[in-house]
Amino acid sequence: MTYANPSDPIRRSVTIAVPLDAAARIAAALEETWPAPDAVGHFETSPTSAEVFAHYTETPDIGLIETMVQAAADGAEIGSLQVETIADEDWVTLSQGKRGKVEAGRFTVHGSHEAVPATRGAIEIDASIAFGTAHHASTKGCLLALDDILKRYRPERVLDIGTGSGVLAIAAAKFCHAETIATDNDAAALNVAEENAALNRTPEIRFRACHGFEDPALVGFEADLVFGNLLKSILLDLVAGFARHTAPGGLAVLSGITADQAASVEASYRNFGFVLKRRILLDGWAILVLQRRPSMPVFD
Hints:
alpha/beta; Rossmann fold; Alpha-Beta Plaits; single chain; four-stranded antiparallel β-sheet; seven-stranded mixed β-sheet
C-alpha cells in the first residue's frame, strides 16, 4: 500500500458497500484504476457484508471506477458509490487505516504509525486487503482465546485456516516453538501474510495457497491447535477437515460467526467428535473453543 504526499491539497475517498465474498476482488479492481489510488482496502461490516474503500490525491474517474467495480462484482448486488472530499487533518488517519491499537490479553495489535513497546506480544499489522487487524470482534476474540490457552500449555503444531493477514498464526508463533502452517485461497492475502510474518520476526510460519485443507503439506498433519476465523457456511463445509487435522485432545478455535449462529456450528462439530470448552461472546460475535475427543473416529 502506498500513501499520499501530505502536502497535496485535494483528497477524495471512494467507498462502496458490497457482499463480503466479493470484497477482495472489488478491492483488487480498485487498485487498477487510474489515477492510481493512494490506499485501497476493505473491512467487514457484518457476517455477510463489507465496505471497500479507495483514497485518491488526484480526482478519480468515477465512471471508470463504477465500470470496474461492476465487472469485479460479477453480478453480486452492491451499493452505490460514495465519494467525499477528505479534510487534510483526517487524511493520514484514513489512508493508513489508523483506528488505534487493539489489546487482547497478552497481545497488542497495532499499525506501523503507532508507538508501541517492542514486547513479545506486540504484533504490527497495517490495514490492507487481507482480513485481520484485530479491530473486528471475531479476530480479537480468537486472540483472547489464544491468550487463555497459552496460560495452560504451548501447542507444538498450529494450523490457521483462512489466515488473512496472518495475525493468528503470528500470535501463536510468537509464544510457541511450534510447527505452524497457515492457509488461504487468496494469493493477495497470502502475500500480505508473508510480509507480516517477516515483519513480526516469525519467518518459520509456512504459508500455503489452497482452499481449506486441500494442500499436500497437510496430508497426515494433525495440529494441537487449529484456527478457523471464517464464515458459518465455510466452517460447516470444512467440519470433517477440522476433525481430521485436529489432533486427539487438540483444540479448534472457531469464529466468524454471530452469537445466534454458534449453536448450529457447535452441534455440527459435536457430531464430529468435538466438545465445547469455552464460548466467548464479543460485540454480537461468537468464538468457540472446541476440543476433539481422543477416541472419536473421523468420517466424511
